[in-house]
Amino acid sequence: MLKLSVADDANVQPLASLNDHRMSHPPPSPIYTLRGAGGPLNSLHFRCYGEDAPLLFSGSGKGCIHIWNLNTRRTNKVIEGHSGSSIIWVCTKRSKDTLISQGRDMQICLWDLGEGRCDLLDSVWTGSVGFCQCSMLETSPISSLLAFAGQQTEEIKIIELPSKIQICTLMPVAKVGMVMCINLFQPDSCPGPLLLAGYEEGSLLLWDVTQQSILSQVKAHPDPVMCLTFDPTRLRGISGSSEKNLSSWKLDEKNNLQLQGGVTLANPGVSQLCIREDGKLLASAGWDSRVRVFGWKKLRPLAVLQYHTDMVLSVAFSDHQDPRQRLMAAGSKDQRISLWSLYNES
User: WD repeats span which residues (predicted)?
Assistant: First the structure.
């Protein structure tokens, strides 16, 4: 188990190279593993704030949502709500006990988890046949914006929840292919929300949601953009594809996307990227069954985690209020979830 403050990471010998040939310290092991999901783990989401037991939600390729109690390390509940179709995204609202799930059945489902319930509140039909995960932005304690891929391959729709009122449809004029990944956020510098989208053609587009217009566009990858994550505090982001390179980029004061280089990995293919809430760590879920951990500030390689026996599909950091309890979870096609304690404050 590796527990070290990132503030002290100068004392940690990083990888000899980004090709992962050797490390000066043996890679850490997971603190424990969750089994029994019954399928590939496409999505993970923590809910560890408040007085209740810390929870981890997982969505599997077999159409099940597991709610894991991290104290007992067992499932509290299993939800089967997408007719056996693969679950590709799960998320909860901070304001109340609402779970949102997205399935390959073209449905987004809203669940009431209050007082031990597991009741279906509502659903939204997307019409999308792709794998693009939803993105949610909570705008008030009672309302949220939800962005998702629409019926047309390049289409992104944004609705308000819980009313389901459609806010806008974002459709690029240029041919950039299917929308692959999206991130909805609200920067301090703008009066309204912005949306980052990665497309099949390899481009990143920054949308002004209010004006329904493109603010900036860059070619980030030669292949489809498989995943992206964005740090709204530092206005920096990073994206991955089926190739070996992670592409780093930022927003300038005029909301222009600027490429900043990136990282070359040993093996191609990244399923998901996640930045820890404190802005110190970046984790990547690799097709080569490895999780790679970087310092987010300089993209310095810190660790290569080799535990899973098949491609890693999802990675998430916990939202524990106590930094000493922070965890990272990785979900794999091998049907296991590994839990890690990495670079926590002493």
Answer: 218-259, 305-346
pLDDT digit string, tens, across residues 263-316 = 999 999 999 999 999 999 999 999 999 999 999 999 999 999 999 999 999 999
pTM for the whole structure: 0.90
User: In degrees rounded to 5, what are phi and psi of residue 6?
Assistant: -65, -25
Cβ contact 283:271 at 8 Å: no
Angle (CA) 82-87-88 rounded to 5° is 140
- Cα pseudo-dihedral 152, 154, 159, 164, rounded to 10: 10
Cα–Cα–Cα angle for 264, 149, 282, nearest 5°? 30
Nearest to 100 by CA among 141, 148, 53, 61: 148
> By three-state DSSP, how is residue 64 classified?
coil
Buried-state track 195-232, b at ≥16 Cβ within 10 A, e below 16 = bbbbbbbbbbbbbbbeeeeebbbbebbeebbbbbbbbe
Please compute, for residue 95, the number of CA atoms within 13 A of its CA located in the half-sphere on the CB side.
Answer: 11
